[in-house]
Amino acid sequence: MGKNKEYELAIKIAGEIEKSFYESMRISKKEMQDIARQAAQTTARMESITGHSAETSIRMRDYLNKGIKESEPFFSGLESTARTAFNGISKAAMLAGTGISAGLAGISAGLVGSVHVGSEFESAFAGVKKTVNASNAELQQMRDSIRGMAKDDIPVTAAELSAIAESAGQLGIHNENIMGFTRTMADLDVSTNLGDNAAADFAKFSNITGMDQGNFSNLGSSVVALGNNMATQEDDIVAMGMRIAGAGNQIGLSEADIMGYSAALSSVGIEAEAGGSAFSKLLTNLQLATETGKNLKEYANVAGMSGKEFKQAFQEDATVAINAFLAGLTDTEQNGKSAIAVLDEMGLTEVRLRDTLLRAGNANELFASALEISNTAWEENTALAMEAEQRYKTFESQCQMTQNKLTDIGITVYDDLRPALTEGIGLVNGFIDGFADQNTIGDFIGSATKKMPTMVRQAKEAGEALGDFADPFLKVGGWLVDNPGVIVGTI
To answer: Which of the two residues, 361 and 380, has the higher pLDDT score?
Structure first.
């Protein structure tokens, strides 16, 4: 039943109740008031009579009792009608109000929820507007993309995605790459052990290496594939990659190569802070050797090449020369001496550097494998998406995606309501500003102070009127004493 129809029914029922109430009483409101007034006056006169005998007083009281007893049918009808009326009104209210109340309660809760999720998303996206220099059309497209991503693709809320997009703007990600960056970071968040610093590390890594910002998903795929196939974790790989990125980029290593070496170094127990600096020093030394010729022969001999071959290999594909050098360190048959002795003759005696090279030399096959895994994953660019997809299939993720869909409905409702809400808040603020004016407050208090005696007097008069009405019923006794419910029904 529609809301208007329910109201109409309630009004109709109330009208019938009122009509039957007065028909049953057969008395008007004015007549009822006259009865109460006359009863009060009779009682007052009776109490004020002096000089009468006790017998006269009893006779007068009995006379009044008799009159009230003779009115029993009226009072009984009045009580019955009153109870019927209130029951009818109660039922009518239930009939007309239950559906409305339930509907309004649901709508009210829904509106409150919509305002909450909508305003939360609005605040989160305000951060994107702050850090991203974009036109209104571009911002609207980003807003729609974030909502679509949260609703249809991934179990990450629109507010959380907005926070990633905001950081993308802070980190210098170009507008056309912000959504791709946001998606990659969200996938990494659910697929790896990379923490809150992942976005900053990836952005800084791309700045160091000059990586195309459209390749963040490729980089993520390399990291995920290495983490799945090497004896290390994603956070250690990225930490090492940040350490060797500068030197690696200088000698022409690709981003996939850098992450491959990072995973291999981490897999042999080399920590990023110490091992990253040591390996970077090796790469720098190799660069100087091929450019200046200093120690070129020693590096080439360890790698089993001539100086010319080593230089050419390093310039064409640095990984070939590096891997050959690391493999040659442990080839005692070729060198005729231990790796420690070889490094000592080359002047590579710094403790951290020597430890790093010895570990790398003993695991030279691992380094080659890591490079292959990283480059294959980069080219295929599927490892991250596949890992994330497995996570998104879990029950927990599916529940979150359902919640995201409901949240998106709330955001839509909020968008529709926001203009009216904003206008309403403006009116309230204007009222508060006006009310907060000192003169307004003073006038209000002054007016209340002046009117207080009047309010007290009116309340007192109302109490006296009720007393006048109830007094004869309370004092007379008789049938009413035996039927106290009538007092309740009458009053």
So the answer is: 380
In whole angstroms, give the CA distance from residue 7 to residue 97: 8
User: In the predicted model, is pLDDT for residue 306 greater than 90?
Assistant: yes
Distances (CA, A) of 155 to 74, 85, 178, 384: 72, 56, 19, 15
3-state secondary structure of 347: coil
At CA 48, angle to CA 46 and CA 50, rounded to 5?
A: 100
Distance CA 443, CA 451 (A): 12
* ∠ CA 367-368-370, rounded to 5°: 65
234 near 274, Cβ under 8 Å? no
Q: How far is CA 409 from CA 106, 118, 233, 402, 416, in A?
A: 15, 9, 38, 11, 11
**Helix (H/G/I), strand (E/B), else coil: 303:** helix
pLDDT of residue 81: 47
Expressed in angstroms, the distance from the first to the final Cα of the chain is 36
The rounded mean pLDDT for the chain is 76
The rounded distance, in Å, linking the Cα atoms of 184 and 206 is 14
Backbone angles phi, psi at 337, to 5 degrees: -160, 170
Cβ atoms of 400 and 166 closer than 8 Å: no
Tokens of 330: 């442990």
Would you state the pLDDT for residue 50? Answer: 46
Number of residues that this document lists for the chain: 491
Q: What is the pLDDT of residue 491?
A: 41
CB 363 within 8 A of CB 267: yes
CA–CA separation, 266 and 269 (whole Å): 5
Output the pLDDT for position 243.
93
Which two tokens mark 157? 């809320």
Tokens 């006296």 identify what position? 464
Q: How confident is the model at residue 80 (pLDDT cuts 50, 70, 90)?
A: low
CA 457, 460, 466, 469 torsion: positive or negative?
negative
Instruction: Check: CB of residue 245 under 8 Å from CB of residue 208.
Output: yes
Residue 81 CA to residue 89 CA, distance in Å, equals: 12
Tell me: pLDDT of 315 over 80.
yes
Asked if 65 and 46 count as a contact pair (C-beta separation under 8 A), the reply is no
